[in-house]
Amino acid sequence: MKLFSTLACLLAGAITSAALPAEYSAQTIISTITWTGQVNPGGPLVSITGTAEEIYKEIIGINPNYDNELGLNSSRSAVEKRDLEPIKKRATTSDDWTCAYGNDVNAESIGAGIRYLYSIANGDCSAPPGRPGDGGCTASSCNSGAGIFLCNDSSNTLHTPCSIVADNAVEVLINCQSTTYAGGSSWITNTHGQIFSRDRSWNVILNRC
């Protein structure tokens, strides 16, 4: 099943598009996320700005044992070891999502971005202040043109666990994907969409970057 294989790829390591609404155009993308968390056990909090991939690589540069000490392989990991089949149950999200938003992006590239977000799940991801309809958006991931954006609709800087950002991206990925035949034995799975937090003060968008 294509959905299962996409999600399996996500944690292991259709070419039509909808127009992106003007109120969430690239002009509202202010920067990449700022991650704040521990790089070494018992160490001070460190803030790093970049995409999840860039942040993860900088963390590993500081502490090559991060994965085992604080990351996905650690007993302290904020991400529980879950089976892939009931993956939908992992998401700490609302049901307030829509697929009628954004432009098609490759689902496996989104999966790679989600994997990096889970890799830095022991810290917070932040987005600058914004307002409804004009959120302060940060690019938390951008892989092969497929972006995961964290957008803040409140007047205060947003700080939320990176694992929650990843969970919300998973929810959109599960519910908003289409697979088309690409010839031979090849299939292409795309996704795009948006999901709001329960209090609608912030949202996560899957869209082109």
Describe the structure concisely.
The protein is an alpha+beta fold.
Major sheet description: 9 strands, mixed
Element order, helices and strands? HEEHHEEHEEEEHEEEE
Characterize the overall form. globular
What is the number of helical segments per DSSP (H or I, 4+ residues)? Answer: 5
Strand content range: 25-35%
Report the count of strand segments. Answer: 12
Separation of the first and last Cα atoms:
28 Å
Q: Estimate the mean pLDDT confidence.
A: 81
Oligomeric description of these chains: single chain
What share of residues is helical? Answer: 10-25%
Structural class from helices and strands?
alpha+beta
**Cα-atom radius of gyration:** 16 Å
Q: Unreliable segments (pLDDT under 50, ≥5 consecutive)?
A: 1-27, 81-91
